[in-house]
Amino acid sequence: ITKYYRRYIKTYSLTFFTNYYYLCFNNPHVVLLLLIARLPACVQFQHLPSQDRESSGPDSRDIKMYECSKGSFHCRTKVGASGSEVPRIKLSNGAEMPAIALGAYLGFDQNGIIRPREHNLRDVIVRAIDVGYRHFDTASIYETEAEVGQAVRLKIAEGAVHRHDIFITTKLWNTQHRRDQVVSSLKESLKKMGLSYVDLYLMHWPIGLNEDYSYSDADYMETWRGLEDAQWLGLTRSIGVSNFNQDQLQRVIVEGSIKPVALQIEQELVDFAQRQGIVVMGYSPFGSLVKRFGVKLPGPQIDDSTLVEIAKKFNKTTPQVVLRWLV
C-alpha cells in the first residue's frame, strides 16, 4: 500500500494526508466545517469542567467538550450536545449530510494498515454519538467498517438514535474497480457493519489496481456504473467520488446516469464542483497531525511557530485558529 501511494503521488502530484479534517463547501458564499478527528489519539475522553469550556459569544450553544487524554497528540473537540444541533448540508439528490463527522482511518505503519485494538475504536464512536456526532467516515481499505457498525448498532439498540439519524460514508477500494465487483464489495462492507445500507458510497480513487497492486485496465467509468448499480439496488442512498481531477469529474457527469453528490479533493476544484451542484469534502487543510512510517508527509501544521504564537495570543488551540480561519 505504501509503495502504491508513493507511486500515485509521484504520478499525479497529489498530496496524500493520513488523518482527516474535512471542510464541506456547499455554496460559493458559505463554508461549513466538517471535522474528522483522528481516532488513535482519542481513545479516552475526559470531560472538562465548565470553566474550561470555550464560549463562542452570545449565540454559542450549551456544549460538551472532551479532551483526548491518550495518544500521539492532545486535542479538544466540541460538538453539539444533541444530534439536532449539528448542521446538515443538502446534497443534490435531496439527501442531507451532517456537516460534522468522525473519520475512522487509523493510518498505516511498517506492518501495513493499522487495525483497531480490542474495542477502542468502537468505544470512541459510541462516545462520539453520545456527544452529538451523527456522521461517520470509513472505507474498505481502513479495515474499520466492523467497528463503526458495532458502535452504531449498539446505540440504536439502546434507543439513543435511529438508523435514519446516522449518516455513514464508506469507500470502494481500488482493487474492486470492475463493474461486477462493486456491488459485491459494498455488500461485504455492509456485512461487516451489520447494516442494510450506507448513506454515501465513494469511489476512493479513480485508478484501478490488480491484487498485486499493478495498474488494472478497469476504466473508472465502468466502476462508476457499478456504483450506480449499488444505488439502484438500495445498498447506498448516495454515491460520489474521491481524489478525482476536473477532467475525470466532468466525464462522470457527462457519461454517467447519476451525478456524484460529493467529491473529496483539494481546493482548486471547489469552484467547478459548486457549479455542478456537487458538495466538496476537502481533507486535511492543515496537514498531517502525526508522522507516518516510511512516508514523506508535510509536517504537522499545528506545530507551526506562527500558528502557535497566534493561538497563545487568543488563548486558543492551533487547530481552533486554523479551522476558524478556514470557516
UniProtKB/TrEMBL annotation:
PROSITE patterns: ALDOKETO_REDUCTASE_1, ALDOKETO_REDUCTASE_2. Signal peptide: none annotated. One of its GO terms (molecular function) is oxidoreductase activity. SUPFAM superfamilies: NAD(P)-linked oxidoreductase. The chain crosses the membrane at residues 20-41. It comes from the Eukaryota. Keywords: Membrane, Transmembrane, Transmembrane helix. Pfam families: Aldo_ket_red (PF00248). The keyword Transmembrane helix applies. Residues 117-327 form the NADP-dependent oxidoreductase domain. The keyword Transferase does not apply. PANTHER family: ALDO/KETO REDUCTASE. This is NADP-dependent oxidoreductase domain-containing protein. It comes from Leptidea sinapis.
